[in-house]
Design a protein that fits this description.
alpha+beta, five-stranded mixed β-sheet, 9% strand, two-stranded antiparallel ribbon, single chain, 2 domains, 17 helices
Length: 382
Protein backbone atom coordinates (compact mmCIF):
# COMPACT_ATOMS: atom_id res chain seq x y z
CA UNK A 1 0.00 0.00 0.00
CA UNK A 2 2.92 2.32 0.73
CA UNK A 3 4.03 2.24 -2.91
CA UNK A 4 0.59 3.54 -3.99
CA UNK A 5 0.77 6.44 -1.54
CA UNK A 6 4.19 7.40 -2.88
CA UNK A 7 2.80 7.74 -6.40
CA UNK A 8 0.22 10.23 -5.15
CA UNK A 9 2.97 12.66 -4.24
CA UNK A 10 4.82 12.52 -7.54
CA UNK A 11 2.71 15.22 -9.22
CA UNK A 12 1.88 13.02 -12.21
CA UNK A 13 -1.51 11.74 -11.12
CA UNK A 14 -3.55 10.49 -14.12
CA UNK A 15 -6.99 11.92 -14.74
CA UNK A 16 -10.09 9.74 -14.56
CA UNK A 17 -10.07 9.41 -18.35
CA UNK A 18 -6.38 8.42 -18.32
CA UNK A 19 -7.10 5.73 -15.76
CA UNK A 20 -9.25 4.06 -18.42
CA UNK A 21 -6.12 3.26 -20.44
CA UNK A 22 -4.21 2.06 -17.37
CA UNK A 23 -7.02 -0.26 -16.26
CA UNK A 24 -7.48 -1.66 -19.77
CA UNK A 25 -3.79 -2.49 -20.05
CA UNK A 26 -3.65 -4.02 -16.56
CA UNK A 27 -6.74 -6.11 -17.28
CA UNK A 28 -5.40 -7.54 -20.53
CA UNK A 29 -2.02 -8.31 -18.99
CA UNK A 30 -3.73 -10.40 -16.30
CA UNK A 31 -6.42 -11.91 -18.50
CA UNK A 32 -4.20 -12.84 -21.44
CA UNK A 33 -0.87 -13.28 -19.64
CA UNK A 34 0.87 -10.81 -21.95
CA UNK A 35 3.31 -7.92 -21.59
CA UNK A 36 2.33 -4.28 -21.26
CA UNK A 37 2.94 -3.34 -24.90
CA UNK A 38 0.79 -6.21 -26.17
CA UNK A 39 -1.92 -5.42 -23.62
CA UNK A 40 -2.04 -1.76 -24.67
CA UNK A 41 -2.31 -2.73 -28.33
CA UNK A 42 -5.08 -5.22 -27.54
CA UNK A 43 -6.97 -2.49 -25.66
CA UNK A 44 -6.77 -0.12 -28.64
CA UNK A 45 -5.55 2.73 -26.47
CA UNK A 46 -2.52 5.00 -26.12
CA UNK A 47 0.12 4.70 -23.43
CA UNK A 48 1.90 7.68 -21.89
CA UNK A 49 4.90 5.89 -20.46
CA UNK A 50 6.27 8.83 -18.50
CA UNK A 51 2.97 9.19 -16.68
CA UNK A 52 1.33 5.76 -16.74
CA UNK A 53 4.20 3.39 -15.95
CA UNK A 54 4.34 4.45 -12.29
CA UNK A 55 0.59 3.74 -11.97
CA UNK A 56 0.45 0.33 -13.63
CA UNK A 57 0.65 -1.46 -10.27
CA UNK A 58 -2.33 0.56 -9.07
CA UNK A 59 -4.21 -0.45 -12.21
CA UNK A 60 -3.39 -4.11 -11.52
CA UNK A 61 -4.69 -3.76 -7.97
CA UNK A 62 -7.91 -2.17 -9.29
CA UNK A 63 -8.38 -5.08 -11.71
CA UNK A 64 -7.78 -7.67 -8.99
CA UNK A 65 -10.26 -6.09 -6.59
CA UNK A 66 -12.93 -5.70 -9.26
CA UNK A 67 -12.55 -8.97 -11.20
CA UNK A 68 -10.64 -11.34 -8.94
CA UNK A 69 -7.60 -13.40 -9.84
CA UNK A 70 -8.97 -14.80 -13.09
CA UNK A 71 -10.44 -12.10 -15.35
CA UNK A 72 -11.38 -13.33 -18.82
CA UNK A 73 -11.68 -11.85 -22.28
CA UNK A 74 -10.11 -8.62 -23.46
CA UNK A 75 -10.91 -5.13 -22.23
CA UNK A 76 -11.00 -2.49 -24.94
CA UNK A 77 -10.91 1.25 -24.49
CA UNK A 78 -13.92 2.90 -26.12
CA UNK A 79 -12.14 6.23 -26.38
CA UNK A 80 -14.76 8.07 -28.45
CA UNK A 81 -15.41 11.63 -27.34
CA UNK A 82 -18.96 11.74 -28.67
CA UNK A 83 -21.66 9.35 -29.89
CA UNK A 84 -24.73 9.82 -32.07
CA UNK A 85 -27.98 10.62 -30.27
CA UNK A 86 -31.39 9.17 -31.03
CA UNK A 87 -33.75 11.51 -32.88
CA UNK A 88 -36.17 11.41 -29.94
CA UNK A 89 -33.59 12.43 -27.36
CA UNK A 90 -32.08 15.11 -29.58
CA UNK A 91 -35.56 16.53 -30.10
CA UNK A 92 -36.16 16.69 -26.35
CA UNK A 93 -32.85 18.46 -25.79
CA UNK A 94 -33.58 21.02 -28.50
CA UNK A 95 -37.06 21.76 -27.16
CA UNK A 96 -35.84 21.85 -23.56
CA UNK A 97 -32.90 24.18 -24.12
CA UNK A 98 -33.54 25.88 -27.46
CA UNK A 99 -30.24 24.66 -28.87
CA UNK A 100 -28.68 21.49 -30.26
CA UNK A 101 -26.83 19.15 -27.94
CA UNK A 102 -23.13 19.93 -27.63
CA UNK A 103 -20.16 17.61 -27.26
CA UNK A 104 -20.45 17.27 -23.47
CA UNK A 105 -24.02 16.04 -23.84
CA UNK A 106 -22.96 13.49 -26.47
CA UNK A 107 -20.32 11.92 -24.22
CA UNK A 108 -20.78 8.12 -24.26
CA UNK A 109 -21.68 6.41 -21.00
CA UNK A 110 -19.31 3.55 -21.90
CA UNK A 111 -15.62 4.09 -21.17
CA UNK A 112 -14.30 0.54 -21.64
CA UNK A 113 -15.86 -2.75 -22.64
CA UNK A 114 -15.39 -6.49 -22.37
CA UNK A 115 -17.53 -7.94 -25.13
CA UNK A 116 -21.13 -7.09 -24.24
CA UNK A 117 -20.14 -5.64 -20.87
CA UNK A 118 -20.08 -1.89 -21.42
CA UNK A 119 -18.36 -0.24 -18.48
CA UNK A 120 -18.80 3.26 -17.09
CA UNK A 121 -15.78 4.15 -14.92
CA UNK A 122 -16.48 6.20 -11.80
CA UNK A 123 -14.23 7.46 -9.03
CA UNK A 124 -15.31 6.89 -5.45
CA UNK A 125 -16.49 10.04 -3.75
CA UNK A 126 -19.24 11.03 -6.12
CA UNK A 127 -19.63 12.82 -9.42
CA UNK A 128 -22.26 14.77 -11.34
CA UNK A 129 -25.12 12.54 -12.44
CA UNK A 130 -25.19 13.89 -16.00
CA UNK A 131 -22.03 14.61 -17.98
CA UNK A 132 -23.90 17.29 -19.94
CA UNK A 133 -24.90 19.19 -16.78
CA UNK A 134 -28.28 20.75 -16.03
CA UNK A 135 -29.30 20.91 -19.69
CA UNK A 136 -28.99 17.15 -20.05
CA UNK A 137 -30.81 16.59 -16.76
CA UNK A 138 -33.63 18.86 -17.90
CA UNK A 139 -34.05 17.05 -21.23
CA UNK A 140 -33.97 13.67 -19.47
CA UNK A 141 -36.66 14.73 -16.99
CA UNK A 142 -38.88 16.00 -19.77
CA UNK A 143 -38.54 12.74 -21.65
CA UNK A 144 -39.31 10.84 -18.45
CA UNK A 145 -42.50 12.88 -17.93
CA UNK A 146 -43.73 12.13 -21.42
CA UNK A 147 -43.03 8.41 -20.89
CA UNK A 148 -44.97 8.15 -17.63
CA UNK A 149 -48.19 6.19 -18.38
CA UNK A 150 -50.92 8.63 -19.40
CA UNK A 151 -53.43 7.18 -16.95
CA UNK A 152 -51.07 7.93 -14.05
CA UNK A 153 -50.77 11.57 -15.10
CA UNK A 154 -54.41 12.19 -16.00
CA UNK A 155 -55.60 11.03 -12.58
CA UNK A 156 -53.43 13.64 -10.87
CA UNK A 157 -54.14 16.30 -13.51
CA UNK A 158 -57.92 15.77 -13.30
CA UNK A 159 -57.81 16.19 -9.53
CA UNK A 160 -55.80 19.42 -9.81
CA UNK A 161 -58.02 20.83 -12.57
CA UNK A 162 -61.18 20.09 -10.56
CA UNK A 163 -59.69 21.98 -7.61
CA UNK A 164 -58.82 24.88 -9.94
CA UNK A 165 -62.40 24.94 -11.28
CA UNK A 166 -63.79 25.04 -7.73
CA UNK A 167 -61.54 27.98 -6.88
CA UNK A 168 -62.54 29.83 -10.05
CA UNK A 169 -66.24 29.24 -9.39
CA UNK A 170 -65.87 30.58 -5.85
CA UNK A 171 -64.28 33.74 -7.24
CA UNK A 172 -67.07 34.18 -9.78
CA UNK A 173 -69.01 36.38 -7.36
CA UNK A 174 -66.47 39.09 -8.09
CA UNK A 175 -67.37 39.13 -11.77
CA UNK A 176 -69.38 42.21 -12.80
CA UNK A 177 -72.53 41.77 -14.81
CA UNK A 178 -73.61 44.37 -17.36
CA UNK A 179 -75.16 47.55 -16.08
CA UNK A 180 -78.33 46.80 -14.13
CA UNK A 181 -76.99 43.62 -12.53
CA UNK A 182 -78.85 41.20 -14.78
CA UNK A 183 -79.22 40.17 -18.41
CA UNK A 184 -82.67 40.68 -19.85
CA UNK A 185 -81.54 40.54 -23.47
CA UNK A 186 -78.40 38.52 -24.03
CA UNK A 187 -77.89 39.81 -27.55
CA UNK A 188 -77.64 43.33 -26.17
CA UNK A 189 -75.21 42.13 -23.54
CA UNK A 190 -72.95 40.60 -26.17
CA UNK A 191 -73.00 43.83 -28.12
CA UNK A 192 -72.13 45.66 -24.91
CA UNK A 193 -68.90 43.66 -24.65
CA UNK A 194 -69.96 40.81 -22.35
CA UNK A 195 -67.96 38.32 -24.40
CA UNK A 196 -64.72 40.28 -23.93
CA UNK A 197 -65.36 40.82 -20.22
CA UNK A 198 -66.12 37.16 -19.59
CA UNK A 199 -63.19 35.76 -21.56
CA UNK A 200 -60.75 38.29 -20.07
CA UNK A 201 -61.90 37.32 -16.58
CA UNK A 202 -61.38 33.61 -17.26
CA UNK A 203 -57.96 34.23 -18.86
CA UNK A 204 -56.90 36.27 -15.84
CA UNK A 205 -57.85 33.46 -13.46
CA UNK A 206 -56.02 30.88 -15.53
CA UNK A 207 -52.93 33.09 -15.81
CA UNK A 208 -52.68 33.45 -12.06
CA UNK A 209 -53.18 29.77 -11.20
CA UNK A 210 -50.27 27.69 -9.87
CA UNK A 211 -51.97 24.41 -9.06
CA UNK A 212 -51.47 22.88 -12.52
CA UNK A 213 -47.74 23.54 -12.57
CA UNK A 214 -47.51 22.21 -9.02
CA UNK A 215 -49.12 18.92 -10.01
CA UNK A 216 -46.73 18.56 -12.96
CA UNK A 217 -43.88 19.03 -10.50
CA UNK A 218 -45.46 16.38 -8.26
CA UNK A 219 -45.55 13.94 -11.18
CA UNK A 220 -41.89 14.63 -11.92
CA UNK A 221 -40.99 14.06 -8.27
CA UNK A 222 -42.56 10.58 -8.05
CA UNK A 223 -40.20 7.65 -7.30
CA UNK A 224 -41.04 6.12 -10.69
CA UNK A 225 -39.79 9.17 -12.60
CA UNK A 226 -36.77 9.53 -10.32
CA UNK A 227 -35.87 5.90 -11.01
CA UNK A 228 -36.09 6.28 -14.78
CA UNK A 229 -34.06 9.50 -14.80
CA UNK A 230 -31.28 7.88 -12.78
CA UNK A 231 -31.35 4.76 -14.97
CA UNK A 232 -31.06 6.87 -18.11
CA UNK A 233 -28.26 8.93 -16.57
CA UNK A 234 -26.20 5.83 -15.86
CA UNK A 235 -26.89 3.91 -19.05
CA UNK A 236 -27.95 6.25 -21.87
CA UNK A 237 -30.49 3.64 -22.99
CA UNK A 238 -32.77 6.07 -24.81
CA UNK A 239 -30.13 8.64 -25.55
CA UNK A 240 -27.75 6.86 -27.92
CA UNK A 241 -28.45 5.34 -31.33
CA UNK A 242 -25.85 2.58 -31.09
CA UNK A 243 -25.43 -0.06 -28.39
CA UNK A 244 -21.75 0.44 -27.57
CA UNK A 245 -22.10 3.93 -25.99
CA UNK A 246 -24.83 2.53 -23.70
CA UNK A 247 -23.39 1.33 -20.38
CA UNK A 248 -24.64 -1.72 -18.47
CA UNK A 249 -21.91 -1.94 -15.83
CA UNK A 250 -20.24 0.51 -13.47
CA UNK A 251 -16.69 0.13 -12.26
CA UNK A 252 -15.79 2.17 -9.20
CA UNK A 253 -12.18 2.86 -8.22
CA UNK A 254 -9.85 5.06 -6.28
CA UNK A 255 -6.19 5.95 -6.69
CA UNK A 256 -4.88 3.46 -4.15
CA UNK A 257 -6.38 0.40 -5.85
CA UNK A 258 -9.78 0.03 -4.25
CA UNK A 259 -12.46 -1.02 -6.76
CA UNK A 260 -15.70 -2.88 -7.38
CA UNK A 261 -17.65 -3.98 -10.43
CA UNK A 262 -21.45 -3.59 -10.47
CA UNK A 263 -24.11 -4.51 -13.02
CA UNK A 264 -26.61 -1.70 -13.64
CA UNK A 265 -29.72 -3.77 -12.91
CA UNK A 266 -33.01 -2.81 -11.25
CA UNK A 267 -31.64 -3.38 -7.76
CA UNK A 268 -28.59 -1.15 -8.25
CA UNK A 269 -30.60 1.53 -10.06
CA UNK A 270 -33.08 1.67 -7.17
CA UNK A 271 -30.20 1.98 -4.71
CA UNK A 272 -28.66 4.94 -6.55
CA UNK A 273 -32.08 6.54 -7.12
CA UNK A 274 -32.89 6.34 -3.40
CA UNK A 275 -29.77 8.42 -2.71
CA UNK A 276 -30.36 10.95 -5.50
CA UNK A 277 -32.40 14.06 -4.81
CA UNK A 278 -33.55 16.51 -7.46
CA UNK A 279 -34.79 20.06 -6.99
CA UNK A 280 -37.46 20.92 -9.55
CA UNK A 281 -39.12 24.30 -9.85
CA UNK A 282 -40.92 26.43 -12.42
CA UNK A 283 -40.36 30.06 -13.18
CA UNK A 284 -42.60 32.33 -15.20
CA UNK A 285 -41.61 32.78 -18.81
CA UNK A 286 -42.93 34.91 -21.65
CA UNK A 287 -43.38 38.63 -22.14
CA UNK A 288 -44.51 40.30 -18.96
CA UNK A 289 -44.95 36.92 -17.31
CA UNK A 290 -48.40 36.49 -18.83
CA UNK A 291 -48.86 32.75 -19.01
CA UNK A 292 -51.68 32.44 -21.50
CA UNK A 293 -50.05 34.71 -24.05
CA UNK A 294 -46.56 33.22 -23.70
CA UNK A 295 -47.11 30.58 -26.35
CA UNK A 296 -44.42 31.37 -28.86
CA UNK A 297 -42.35 28.66 -30.49
CA UNK A 298 -44.31 25.42 -30.64
CA UNK A 299 -47.73 27.10 -30.65
CA UNK A 300 -49.14 30.24 -32.20
CA UNK A 301 -49.16 33.19 -29.85
CA UNK A 302 -52.93 33.53 -30.07
CA UNK A 303 -53.63 29.85 -29.33
CA UNK A 304 -54.87 30.20 -25.77
CA UNK A 305 -56.74 33.44 -26.44
CA UNK A 306 -58.67 31.69 -29.17
CA UNK A 307 -59.20 28.67 -26.95
CA UNK A 308 -60.92 30.68 -24.22
CA UNK A 309 -62.98 32.62 -26.77
CA UNK A 310 -64.06 29.37 -28.43
CA UNK A 311 -64.99 28.00 -25.03
CA UNK A 312 -67.17 31.04 -24.40
CA UNK A 313 -68.97 30.73 -27.73
CA UNK A 314 -69.61 27.01 -27.28
CA UNK A 315 -70.81 27.49 -23.70
CA UNK A 316 -73.30 30.19 -24.63
CA UNK A 317 -74.73 28.10 -27.45
CA UNK A 318 -75.10 25.09 -25.15
CA UNK A 319 -76.80 27.12 -22.44
CA UNK A 320 -79.25 28.65 -24.88
CA UNK A 321 -79.96 25.29 -26.53
CA UNK A 322 -80.62 23.70 -23.15
CA UNK A 323 -83.04 26.50 -22.29
CA UNK A 324 -81.17 27.29 -19.09
CA UNK A 325 -81.75 31.01 -19.52
CA UNK A 326 -85.50 30.58 -20.09
CA UNK A 327 -85.96 28.24 -17.13
CA UNK A 328 -84.74 30.82 -14.63
CA UNK A 329 -87.75 32.77 -13.45
CA UNK A 330 -86.14 35.09 -10.92
CA UNK A 331 -85.16 38.09 -13.06
CA UNK A 332 -82.72 39.44 -10.48
CA UNK A 333 -80.68 36.25 -10.63
CA UNK A 334 -81.25 35.50 -14.27
CA UNK A 335 -77.96 36.85 -15.62
CA UNK A 336 -75.80 35.54 -12.78
CA UNK A 337 -77.08 31.96 -13.01
CA UNK A 338 -76.84 31.97 -16.78
CA UNK A 339 -73.20 33.05 -16.65
CA UNK A 340 -72.37 30.56 -13.88
CA UNK A 341 -73.56 27.77 -16.13
CA UNK A 342 -71.65 29.27 -19.03
CA UNK A 343 -68.50 29.44 -16.88
CA UNK A 344 -68.74 25.75 -15.99
CA UNK A 345 -69.19 24.81 -19.62
CA UNK A 346 -66.28 27.04 -20.65
CA UNK A 347 -63.91 25.35 -18.23
CA UNK A 348 -65.10 21.90 -19.29
CA UNK A 349 -64.50 22.83 -22.93
CA UNK A 350 -61.00 24.11 -22.19
CA UNK A 351 -60.03 21.00 -20.23
CA UNK A 352 -61.35 18.71 -22.96
CA UNK A 353 -59.09 20.50 -25.44
CA UNK A 354 -55.90 20.57 -23.37
CA UNK A 355 -56.06 17.50 -21.11
CA UNK A 356 -54.59 15.00 -23.56
CA UNK A 357 -51.87 17.39 -24.70
CA UNK A 358 -50.83 18.29 -21.16
CA UNK A 359 -50.75 14.65 -20.11
CA UNK A 360 -48.61 13.59 -23.08
CA UNK A 361 -46.33 16.60 -23.60
CA UNK A 362 -44.57 18.61 -20.93
CA UNK A 363 -43.58 21.10 -23.62
CA UNK A 364 -47.23 21.89 -24.28
CA UNK A 365 -47.87 22.24 -20.54
CA UNK A 366 -45.00 24.70 -20.12
CA UNK A 367 -46.03 26.76 -23.13
CA UNK A 368 -49.67 26.78 -22.09
CA UNK A 369 -49.02 27.80 -18.49
CA UNK A 370 -46.20 30.16 -19.44
CA UNK A 371 -43.59 28.56 -17.22
CA UNK A 372 -40.11 27.12 -17.62
CA UNK A 373 -38.82 24.15 -15.66
CA UNK A 374 -35.56 24.38 -13.73
CA UNK A 375 -33.78 21.30 -12.37
CA UNK A 376 -30.44 20.70 -10.67
CA UNK A 377 -27.78 18.16 -11.66
CA UNK A 378 -27.01 16.49 -8.35
CA UNK A 379 -23.71 14.95 -7.33
CA UNK A 380 -24.16 11.21 -6.90
CA UNK A 381 -22.22 8.49 -5.11
CA UNK A 382 -22.52 5.62 -7.56
Amino acid sequence: MQRFKNYLTEGKKPSGAEFESIICAAYNMKSKGIDKESAVKLAGTEWKADKFDAWLNVGQEIVKNAFGDKPSGKMEHYGAGTADLTNEWESFFLKATGKKAGASTKTPKTDMYIGNQHISLKKYGGSQLMSGGKAETLATFMMAYDNVPTKVKTKKLDKAWNKLVQDIEKDFVTFSLPKGGQITDYKKAIKAGMRDKMTDWVKDKLEKQTIMTEVIRDILMTPEVNLEVVREAMTGNKKFKDKLPIANYIMKFDEVGKSEYVKIDDSYTKKVASQTKFNISFKTSGTGGQAWTATKGIFKESYTNKLVEEAYDEAIVECLNEGIFDKIKNAARKGTNFLKNALKKMLTYIWTKIKHLISTSIFFAQKLFGVKMIVNNPKVKF
